[in-house]
Amino acid sequence: MKINHLTSAEENLMRLLWKLGSFYLKDIMEQHPEPKPHQNTVSTYLKILTEKGYLSTEKEGRIFRYQTIVPAEEYRKFLLIQLSDNFFSSSGKEIVSFMIQEQLISADDLKDFNIDIDPVLKKEPAFEYANEILNPKKDKKKNKDKKKKKKKEKE
């Protein structure tokens, strides 16, 4: 089964739809948190999600009954693989290392999997150049300050 990317709005709606499983448009409108979107907006999203292969439809008289086709776990797996491929060189080790460094996972969490966190924490950060990329203004300012100091020293 090929899974297609979803926009953030489609993902938000799919979270509700995964909870419902099988539903009518009126069920979505009743369950959707405030502020509720217009019914036509929801209908448009349902059409798009059906075209992308996330939902199936069955006509019952004048209305449609929708059913989720792609399970939430499959979409989660798809997203994690995409994240791994695009940002972590397809390496689960890099993902875990990043999560430890950013304190997104704790030593106690890792102990549940019989993983010792101490050797991992002693390693040099794998993303040393991330700050240079994310904070280029600071580096430019430092370079300007260095240039000014050199000019003053020459004078």
Structure, explained:
This protein has 155 residues and is mostly helical. 59% of the residues lie in helices and 9% in strands. The protein is built from 9 helices and 3 strands. The protein has helices at 8-20, 25-31, 39-51, 72-87, 92-101, 107-111, 118-121, 130-134, 136-154; strands at 22-23, 55-60, 63-68. The protein has a 3-stranded antiparallel β-sheet with strand order 1-3-2. The longest helix has 19 residues, at 136-154. The chain is elongated, with a radius of gyration of 24 Å. It starts with 7 loop residues before the first helix and ends with a helix. The model has no long low-confidence stretch (mean pLDDT 83).
Number of helices: 9
Question: Element order, helices and strands?
Answer: HEHHEEHHHHHH
Radius of gyration: 24 Å
Averaged pLDDT, please? 83
What characteristic shape results from the CA principal axes? Answer: elongated
Strand content: 5-15%
Distance between the termini: 70 Å
Q: Give a count of the beta strands, DSSP E runs of length 2 or more.
A: 3
Counting helices, strands and paired strands, the structural category is: mainly alpha
Largest sheet: 3 strands, antiparallel
Main β-sheet, spatial strand arrangement:
1-3-2
The stretches of 5 or more residues where confidence is low (pLDDT under 50) are none
**Oligomeric state of shown chains:** single chain
Helix content: 55-70%
